[in-house]
Design brief:
The protein has 398 residues and is of the alpha+beta class. It has 14 helices and 24 strands. A seven-stranded antiparallel sheet has the order 19-18-15-16-17-14-20. Helix 1 runs parallel beside helix 5, helix 1 (8-19) packs parallel to helix 14 and helix 9 (266-278) packs across helix 12. The chain is elongated. Bound molecules: flavin-adenine dinucleotide. Flavin-adenine dinucleotide is lined by residues 4-10, 27-30, 35-36, 39-41, 45-46, 126-127, 154-156, 159-160, 163-166, 168-169, 344-345, 372-373, 383-386, 389.
């Protein structure tokens, strides 16, 4: 078997197939294997999630996802990593990490085990074309032609091209008759043309972001909101980005409604502010508000609440209500994402109705297999994308 792509899926598949006694060659265009694993989880590698459930994965064919995951939960992945000598520990929300908290240990142990199992790893080898004749695949590569009986496309998605993200696998597969579900960047930062965000660049709040498309409420996520000079980032934003990305692609108008103090209900916040007035605030308004909210956000809150500029004096209840509304409903229009360059994953990919979920073999071309992000499956943040890469790689050896 030849495997194109020494990323998460390709490495696990290579080890599993080689352990079954088959000869395996692993081709990688980068000079090093596992580049995305190395940078993942800020260098700590959020390798999996303890709470695997099909609703944490997305694609146009949910039954394919359910079938791939059936019997391939976190424990199966943990067993595999134990077999290569990697111990795991649990972080928040079921997130799993290597006990070393170093992604390099994941890559180095995978590489060692692959070589020990007899896998031939060839780096700096880009596959440029594939042809199949009389049961043999011929691969044109930057290091000459290579032939095999079985071929696994584990070449990932276009996300993060700086780390090897590429479209090449899709081109090979579509040439062989497969179809593609459109790909969009996901787990990606969002861009806004509104100028005020630039002035707030660097401000981070624990907030709530609600997404509206064409004025209609879509969904919401809680977590960090980080204002930047291009728009907005932070964990809540990454979690919303899949929806934003696909909607912007259909030319929908996207707007975020930001609650900067979600832990305070409207009433609780109103009471807090009223109490501060009662306690006698003769301070200038901006200084008074600084007691509860980041200074850089105050100007925009006052502007969006159409607050008349004034320096001091007691606030009345109506004015407090306006402020509360603005703090809990700050509007930010979104016109773009940071694209594949900024994305951790891509939505879409090879149409999974054309792939056997138990063996990952193509239903159209015998002895052609797929694993990992090349397929129309993407997961939530929290280790789910690696989970799919590992288990689809393991299934190839079935
Ligand atoms: C910055 C960042 C952080 C991330 N953090 C996490 C995380 O903490 N947890 C998590 O679950 N997921 C995370 N992800 C997502 C995760 O890395 C991917 O979902 C996963 O790596 C997909 O595995 P894969 O094997 O399908 O593809 P990849 O890992 O992308 O591997 C594909 C390989 O194929 C090679 N290739 C492509 N075309 C060719 C060709 N023509 N010839 C030869 N080689 C080729 C590429 O160079 C690449 O090495 C992160 C992604 C990024 C970008």
């Amino acid at each position: 078997m030849i495997i194109i792509g020494a990323g998460a899926a390709g490495l696990v598949a290579a080890i599993s197939v080689a352990r079954k006694g088959q000869a395996v060659i692993l081709l990688e265009q980068n000079s090093k294997i596992g580049k995305k694993i190395l940078v993942s989880g800020n260098g700590k590698c959020n390798i999996d999630n303890k709470y695997i459930s099909s609703h944490r994965f997305h694609g146009q064919n949910p039954s394919f996802i359910e079938n791939v995951l059936e019997g391939y939960d976190f424990e199966v992945v943990q067993k595999f990593f134990t077999s290569i000598g990697l111990a795991l520990i649990e972080g928040k929300e079921g997130k799993m990490f290597p006990m070393s908290l170093q992604s390099s240990s994941v890559v180095e142990l995978l590489e060692y085990e692959a070589k020990r199992a007899g896998v031939q790893i060839i780096c700096d080898c880009t596959v440029t074309a594939i042809d199949k004749k009389e049961g043999t695949f011929t691969l044109e590569t930057s290091q000459g032609d290579k032939r095999c009986e079985k071929l696994l496309l584990a070449s990932g998605s276009p996300a993060a091209p700086q780390l090897g993200g590429s479209n090449s696998g899709y081109a090979f597969a579509t040439k062989m008759g497969h179809t593609l579900i459109p790909r969009h960047p996901s787990l990606v930062q969002l861009c806004s043309e509104e100028t005020w965000v630039k002035a707030c660049a660097g401000v981070k709040v624990a907030g709530l972001a609600q997404l509206y498309a064409n004025g209609e409420y879509i969904t919401e996520k809680k977590g960090d909101l980080l204002f930047t000079n291009y728009g907005i980032s932070g964990l809540a934003i990454l979690d919303l980005s899949r929806e934003v990305s696909t909607r912007l692609a259909s030319f929908d108008y996207c707007e975020l409604n930001l609650d900067l103090m979600p832990e305070f209900s409207k009433e609780k916040l109103t009471n807090l502010l009223l109490k501060r007035v009662e306690e006698g605030s003769d301070k200038p308004l901006i200084l008074w508000l600084q007691g509860v909210i980041n200074k850089k956000l105050i100007t925009i809150i006052l502007k969006q609440s159409k607050f008349k500029a004034r320096e001091e004096g007691e606030l009345n209840r109506k004015e407090i209500n306006k402020l509360v509304h603005s703090i809990k409903n700050l509007k930010l229009s979104i016109n773009d994402t940071k694209g594949f360059q900024g994305a951790e994953v891509a939505t879409g990919g090879i149409n999974t109705t054309e792939v056997n979920p138990h063996t990952m073999e193509s239903k159209l071309i015998s002895n052609l297999f797929f694993a990992g992000e090349i397929l129309d499956v993407d997961g939530d943040r929290g280790g789910f994308n690696f989970h799919f890469a590992w288990v689809s790689g393991l299934r190839v050896a079935n």
